[in-house]
Every structure is written in structure tokens, then in C-alpha cells.
Design a protein that fits this description.
With 328 residues, the chain is an alpha/beta fold. It has a single domain, classed as Aldolase class I (TIM Barrel, Alpha-Beta Barrel). It is 29% helix and 17% strand. The chain has 10 helices and 12 strands. It has a 12-stranded mixed β-sheet with strand order 7-8-9-6-5-4-3-2-1-10-11-12. Helix 1 runs parallel beside helix 2, helix 1 packs across helix 9 and helix 3 runs parallel beside helix 5. The structure holds S-adenosylmethionine and iron/sulfur cluster. The site of S-adenosylmethionine (SAM) has 20 residues, from strand 3, strand 5 and helix 10.
């Protein structure tokens, strides 16, 4: 059956699944330096439980899934989950969002399991700065290897997400954009959002309008279509460029009117909006033996609670769970 929609008649066909709240990095825009509270192993959904939820969701009309986290590649056996999800007939597209550090090791296996494509977070082209932004032991060259292997095995298009921060990496906007000329890079510049428990991101905020101004020396940005995936970015291309440049504007120009997504947190809460605290628990009902019909009813109930829009532009700051819990 197809045709799930929320109370504002937005079609809902996309489920983002966070498979872990853990991460091998501590990006300055996402987490506090000492990390965030973590759920215990038994609080995290098993792959079987995720599969059961995805099957019920697919029967309601979900046909796109994105795996996220935390860092999804640190959860053991992820290709096995991809295989299970890919076996659900109605699911047409399975994508992954990753920091790329472990991607070179898993890209081939993930592709074989049925993963279609990846988005990789890449906030700098400078190895020292990478260490400062991610506060970890990982190396930028691991991410570059991940990008290379992902392209080689056909996890395409590879999209690169850069969270642009004033005084941190905004001086690299031109370098990232210029890369799209000769290489098939699909770079998306993301406006920095406020994050629960991570101090004040506001002083580092740069709007997409300002980013575009900074790119003027490279020439005109021609609007273009996204290729694969119909996410929230607006896409452009520099003259004769092989790749594209996208802008994601959660703060300056929200895209809620087009929102087609639900989120499943690693601990089994169904969340209609990244920035609203409303959640419905699916884990306990599952563990209590809820029927598929019961699960679908809970899913629909959460969809019906999807808010019209978030209030970031009005200064609303999420004060509940960090993005690494919810699957940013
Ligand atoms: N660990 C994976 C990664 O980094 O790609 C997946 C999880 S991460 C929470 C998902 C996305 O959220 C990443 O693209 C990251 O850049 C973005 N993100 C995290 N904190 C953000 C913030 N404060 N503002 C904007 N985007 C943010
Ligand atoms: Fe980890 Fe991704 Fe958050 Fe960075 S953005 S700390 S990689 S979850």
C-alpha cells in the first residue's frame, strides 16, 4: 500500500534510521568535547528489530531509507542490516551518511549488500584542521580513501557535506567549490545549526546567501537538478564543471514544506522532526510483542504528529537530544 501523508498533506516516504549513538569523532559543531551520554547496548535496537520496523514502514509507503548515526560504520555487521533492508521489495533506495573514516574498509561489502550511495561529511581539505574540527585521532587521508573507494565501487553519486563555520573553515569555501570544476564532486554547503548541549554555535553561523557571495569570484552559479535523491539542497553548477554545488539552509530558509521524512533513533524512538522533541517509542512495544498492525498504527500516529515547521529562524534552539542520538 502506498500513500502515507501527514496532517499537512505532505507525502511521507523517507525513513532515516540511526543505527548507533556512538561515534569515532567529536566534531566541534555536533558534540561537546567529552562526548554525549550513551545508551547501553540493550537499549539499542537490534538489526532484527530495525528490519521489523522497516517492513511495517514499507507497507505504509516508505520507499527510501538512509542509515545514519552517530557514526554508522562503527556498528558491527552493518552490511548485514543493509542486506536485510534491501530484501524489502518496496524499498527502492538505501543510502548512508558517514564521516568516511572507515568507509574504505566497508564500501565494497556495503555496495554488494545493496547500498546505493553515500553522503560523506568533509569539513576541510587541511589535515591539521581536520584533527582540530573532529577532535580525534583519525586522519583526513582516511576520508579521502573512503571517497575514492566509494566512487570506485559505484556508491554514486558521492555527496560531500561541509558544515560551514565562520573563523573555522569558511576560508575553504572557494577551494571546495573549485574542486567541483575538474572532479565529479557533489559538494553541499550546510548552514550550521544550534545543537543541544554543545554551547553556542551561533557566533560561527554563516548564511547560504553569504556563502554564495564568497563564491562570486568563481563565476556564475547555474541552477541545476539534484541528479539522484530529492533532499533539501538547492543545486548549482559552475560553468563547465563536472560536479555540483548544493546549499542546505535549515536556518535561513527552512525546507519544512517539502519534508518527507521520519526518523528512527538508535534506541527505537520514532521522531517526526529532527528539531522537535516529540517521539513515539517503538522499542518497548516491539519487545512486548506488538503485532505488525499495531506497529503500523504507532507509525501512523507519529506521522500525524509531524509539526508544520521548526523554529530555528525564530531563534528556537533544540534543547533535548544531540544530533548523534537522533541521526542528524
Ligand atoms: N557521523 C555521520 C556523519 O558525520 O556524516 C552521520 C551522523 S551526523 C550527525 C549527520 C550529519 O549531521 C552530518 O552531515 C553532519 O555534518 C551534520 N551535522 C551535525 N551537527 C550539525 C550542526 N550543528 N549543524 C549542521 N549540520 C550538522
Ligand atoms: Fe560524529 Fe558525525 Fe557528529 Fe561528527 S557529525 S561527531 S562524525 S556523528
Amino acid at each position: 500500500m502506498t500513500g502515507l501523508s501527514d496532517s499537512f498533506q505532505r507525502p511521507i516516504n523517507y525513513l532515516r534510521i540511526s543505527v548507533t549513538d556512538r561515534c569515532n569523532l567529536r566534531c566541534i559543531y555536533c558534540m561537546p568535547a567529552d562526548g554525549v551520554d550513551l545508551r547501553s547496548h540493550s537499549d539499542i535496537l537490534s538489526y532484527e528489530e530495525i528490519y521489523t520496523i522497516a517492513r511495517a514502514a514499507a507497507e505504509l509507503g516508505i520507499n527510501k531509507i538512509r542509515i545514519t548515526g552517530g557514526e554508522p560504520l562503527i556498528r558491527l555487521g552493518l552490511p548485514q542490516l543493509i542486506r536485510m533492508l534491501a530484501s524489502i521489495e518496496a524499498i527502492e533506495d538505501i543510502a548512508l551518511t558517514t564521516n568516511g573514516v572507515l568507509l574504505a574498509d566497508y564500501a565494497g561489502e556495503l555496495k554488494q549488500a545493496g547500498l546505493k550511495r553515500v553522503n560523506i561529511s568533509l569539513d576541510t581539505l587541511n589535515p591539521d584542521r581536520f584533527k582540530r574540527i573532529t577532535r580525534g585521532e583519525s586522519e583526513l587521508k582516511q576520508v579521502f580513501e573512503g571517497i575514492e573507494v566509494a566512487s570506485r565501487v559505484g556508491l554514486e553519486p558521492v555527496k560531500l557535506n561541509m558544515v560551514v563555520m565562520s573563523g573555522i573553515n569558511d576560508d575553504e569555501l572557494l577551494d571546495f567549490a573549485a574542486k567541483t570544476i575538474d572532479e565529479e564532486w557533489h559538494v553541499r554547503f550546510i548552514e550550521l545549526m544550534p545543537v543541544a548541549g554543545n554551547g553556542d554555535n551561533a557566533p560561527r553561523f554563516i548564511s547560504a546567501t553569504e556563502m554564495r557571495k564568497r563564491l562570486e569570484p568563481l563565476g556564475e552559479l547555474e541552477p541545476c537538478l539534484p541528479g539522484v535523491g530529492n533532499g533539501p539542497a538547492k543545486y548549482f553548477r559552475l560553468a563547465k564543471a563536472k560536479g555540483t554545488i548544493g546549499f542546505i539552509t535549515p536556518v535561513s530558509e527552512h525546507f519544512c514544506f517539502n519534508c518527507n521524512r521520519m526518523r528512527l533513533t538508535a534506541d527505537g524512538k520514532l521522531r517526526p522532526c529532527l528539531l522537535s522533541e516529540y517521539e513515539i517509542d517503538l522499542k518497548q512495544p516491539l519487545r512486548d510483542g506488538v503485532s505488525k498492525a499495531g506497529l503500523k498504527k504507532l507509525f501512523k500516529q507519529a506521522v500525524a504528529e509531524k509539526p508544520l515547521q521548526h523554529g530555528l529562524a525564530e531563534g528556537q534552539v533544540p534543547n533535548g537530544r544531540p544530533f548523534s542520538h537522533v541521526g542528524g
